[in-house]
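Regression report. Comparing outputs from two consecutive submissions.

Submission 1:
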Amino acid sequence: MKALAVGLLLCLALAACSSGSAETADPDGAGASPTDMVPVPGAPPVPHEVPIDQSGTTFRPEPALVLAQSTPFEAWTPLPGNRIAVHFVTGSPECYGADATVAETERDVTITVRTGRLAAAQDKTCIMIAVVGTMELDLSAPVGDRTVRNGT
């Protein structure tokens, strides 16, 4: 029985090693290095582009949040003109809000999302539920081919 368990663990370890090398392959020849595709422990996730039909509950920027903290967004959607939508996880909109800051360069759009309790809901009893939120933000120029990143 012990030999079977060790054999199973060895097979799982070998499968993990072989699948890791397939994930870091560069199928389109774009020149991405393996480190571009592997998340850095403790770093915010690399957000990905999604169509607008995958948006969640609409949140409007609310700068007056209680106990606000940085919340990485998981996806984004380019919008017409100089706008972008970011998609993140937070609490119910009856109790929780979000705000964001945008820093732009010619190559990057870095967005820092903060979530926290609404000031008006401080004395309210709120359910603990995860909600996918979407917040639309203005940019100085369209996203174009710039990289969209999480801020800290």
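Submission 2:
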Amino acid sequence: MTADKHYVTIKGIKDGLVFRLDDTCEWDDLLKELQHKLEKTHHRILTGPIIHVHVKLGQRTATDEDKDRIRSIIGTRGNLLIQSIESEADQPEQDAEPPLKILKGIIRSGQTLRHDGDLLFLGDVNPGGTIESTGSIYVMGALRGMAHAGTGGDDEAIIAASYLRPTQLRIAGIISRPPDEWGIEEAYMEFAYIQDGRMEIDKLQHLARIRPGSGIPNPI
């Protein structure tokens, strides 16, 4: 350990102490410093009434045996009660966007393409062809057949296409009006979405305004 590098940082919080353990150093060096601070440099401030301790491991992955070693060292101070030992590597990733699947080809009359998740299709969907997805559907080509997004009930899904003139659109359980009733002359770079229980059509450039935070997810 260098003079200006500390592997163990102890910080007071409302209900006790947080021990932050460096996640980049050698494991043995970390334990040595932890023991040194408990026995030497910090023993006076850690002496007294019962103190609740939360141990943060950062991105370090620790086995049950590793955690037991931490408990054993901290437990030498009888007044320190470990409430938790947490590693960010063990935490489930929150609000992670599902990956976007990229497929290409032509969906001809009588053919159906089904996908679980968001789908980017590079090609045309011909009249009589069907494309379905539990997530959103992005067609980089002409959508002249039927498209059904949010098949599992996701009414936040959208259907977008370079050329949008389908025989029918569905999002969750909502079915669109025929394209000749949309009141939109152009068919290029448009998308369909649900608003107030009704399917609406707008230019793709307005997606961020209508669905804040929306966008094409990361592809796989």
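Expected: both submissions complete independently.
Actual: both completed, but the second showed a warning that disappeared on reload.
Relevant detail on submission 2: The mean pLDDT is 85.
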